Amino acid sequence: MVSVDRILFFRRRQWVADGLLPILLLFSASRGRAQVKEKVILPPNLRQQTALKMQNASMSAMLEALRQNAHVSLLADGEPLREKADIDTSGTVAQLLDRIADTFDYEWKPAKSGIVLLTKRFQNEKERPQINLPEMQQMAKDMVAALRLAPLAAPDVELHDLWRQMMRSLTPEQLAAMSGETPFSARDLSPPQRQLLQQGIWQREMPEDLKRWDELARKLSGMTTSYFTADLSNISTISYTDETGPHTEQQAVISHVVREKNGHRLVTQIYKPAISRSNGGKP
């Protein structure tokens, strides 16, 4: 299941804008301590010395050369976005794997079977993970389940009441500290005050997130039986000019429809594709 810490990460940018980032540190402090990376003891074949010198070579070609030189078994996930690169280095097999992985945006680790597995790390913003529908469906369900665990206040409790209650609980010393030059951290709040702050953040952000993720989960669930419709009775005409000259396009609304078991329909207007186009008045 997707952890609550992961959900909090999604809201970090908004919290920075609201001045609420310190509360994120409270949630994640214990999580950070638990994520100390264990030191991996490399097998002897990855500690042996070797060298690799290639020009304009693909990752698969480099891995094949490394396999032949060092007699290691290698398995890479997918194809890298970068097609070719140069390499001229020497060192341990592990160091060469680091170099190849960094070059092609991968990471690697030895499996118990002795095979070295290389997987994409997606640090390149142009790189995109493979989309697998069953995994996406399960991910959306997990997010919905995690968001429903949010400790929301009772339905009759308004958000502004939570903020007002927290502000009224501030002591004169806390108010004086807030007006000083040093930022007043959420860590300086009392436990009941921090609880109110946490409750207010959840109450403000999570209901809309839950609504969006729930709709996404429902759409993904009905993906294989969904269908498209085109409204050709409502065609619009737009005109614009770009570097190639003036253009005129006629557009129609295309909708993607998911029909749920209860008969409810989830409709998404995807785009308005051009059904005809002319350049400078010429089709």
The backbone outline, from C-alpha atoms, is extended
Structural class: alpha+beta
Strand count, sense and closure of the main sheet?
4 strands, antiparallel
Number of strands: 9
Write down the overall mean pLDDT. Answer: 79
Helical fraction: 40-55%
Give the oligomeric state: single chain
Radius of gyration: 27 Å
Structure, described:
The chain is an alpha+beta fold and 283 residues long. It is built from 10 helices and 9 strands. It is extended. Mean pLDDT is 79; it is low at 1-37.
Summarize the structure.
With 283 residues, the protein is of the alpha+beta class. The chain is built from 10 helices and 9 strands. The radius of gyration is 27 Å and the shape is extended.
Tags for this model:
alpha+beta, 4-stranded antiparallel beta sheet, 42% helix, disordered N terminus, 283 residues, 3-stranded mixed beta sheet
Topology, element by element:
Elements: H1 4-10, H2 12-18, H3 21-33, H4 44-47, E1 49-57, H5 59-70, E2 74-76, E3 85-92, H6 93-104, E4 106-110, E5 116-120, H7 133-147, H8 159-168, H9 172-178, H10 191-221, E6 227-242, E7 245-259, E8 265-271, E9 274-279
Parallel strand pairs: 2-5
Antiparallel strand pairs: 1-3, 4-5, 6-7, 7-8, 7-9
Helix pairs in contact: 5-6, 7-10, 8-10
